[in-house]
């Protein structure tokens, strides 16, 4: 159980998929203007990450590795992720139309969200077993959600701030804010391992 907690805490705080690994930057910057959209995207990405890991890990171990066709990993994983995103998109459109409208073009972009693909491949490359991979994917999704929430809150404050110099307004202050948020997560390095040592 301790190992699972370390996996989850380290992927959320130390190896955050957005702020440390710099994966999934497009939805991170694009959907983080409003808190509702940020939460919706974070939950959708978490859901897709866990489902994608649940589907891709067995495919890798029992199909690609078994028949020595591991070179097809990226193509097969993208196809699986695309199918899962279509499932999520149809579900949101049917049961949560406001969230579906708020996410807009970014919902289909989960298909090509490198964070989802990156976690599925990292789980295999790190030699995690099936259960560890699922918890790692869940932790990565929670880390993505946490980053989205923090960044949406910061952007909300910046939009109402009159102190930002004119040359820094818009994209420059957004990128500066993202870099400062990323730096703040570097402070967690070594803490997670030290908690359970």
UniProtKB/TrEMBL annotation:
InterPro entries named among the record's database cross-references: Ion_transpt_RnfA/RsxA (IPR011293), NqrDE/RnfAE (IPR003667), NqrDE/RnfAE_oxidrdctase (IPR050133)
Pfam families given in the database record: Rnf-Nqr
Membrane-spanning residues: 6-31, 38-57, 69-88, 100-121, 133-152, 173-192
Documented EC number(s): 7.-.-.-
Keywords in alphabetical order: Cell membrane, Electron transport, Membrane, Translocase, Transmembrane, Transmembrane helix, Transport
Biological process (GO), any one: electron transport chain
Compartments where found: Cell membrane; Endomembrane system
Gene Ontology terms: cellular component: endomembrane system; plasma membrane
Membrane topology: Multi-pass membrane protein
Protein family: Belongs to the NqrDE/RnfAE family.
PANTHER family for the chain: INTEGRAL MEMBRANE PROTEIN OF SOXR-REDUCING COMPLEX, ION-TRANSLOCATING OXIDOREDUCTASE COMPLEX SUBUNIT A
Oligomeric form and interacting partners: The complex is composed of six subunits: RnfA, RnfB, RnfC, RnfD, RnfE and RnfG.
Function: Part of a membrane-bound complex that couples electron transfer with translocation of ions across the membrane.
Name assigned to this protein: Ion-translocating oxidoreductase complex subunit A
């Amino acid at each position: 159980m301790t190992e699972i907690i370390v996996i989850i805490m380290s992927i959320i705080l130390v190896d955050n998929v957005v702020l440390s690994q710099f994966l999934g930057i497009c939805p991170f910057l694009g959907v983080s203007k409003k808190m509702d959209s940020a939460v919706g995207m974070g939950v959708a990405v978490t859901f897709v990450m866990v489902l994608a890991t649940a589907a891709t890990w067995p495919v890798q171990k029992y199909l690609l590795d078994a028949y020595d066709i591991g070179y097809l990993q990226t193509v097969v994983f993208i196809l699986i992720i695309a199918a899962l995103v279509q499932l999520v998109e149809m579900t949101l459109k049917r049961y949560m139309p406001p969230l579906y409208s708020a996410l807009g073009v970014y919902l289909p972009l989960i298909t090509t969200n490198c964070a989802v693909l990156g976690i599925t491949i990292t789980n295999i490359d790190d030699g995690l077993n099936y259960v560890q991979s699922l918890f790692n994917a869940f932790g990565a999704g929670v880390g993505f959600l946490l980053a989205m929430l923090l960044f949406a809150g910061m952007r909300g404050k910046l939009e109402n701030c009159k102190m930002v110099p004119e040359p820094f307004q818009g994209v420059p202050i957004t990128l500066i804010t993202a870099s400062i948020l990323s730096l703040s997560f570097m402070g967690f390095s070594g803490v997670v391992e030290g908690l359970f040592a």
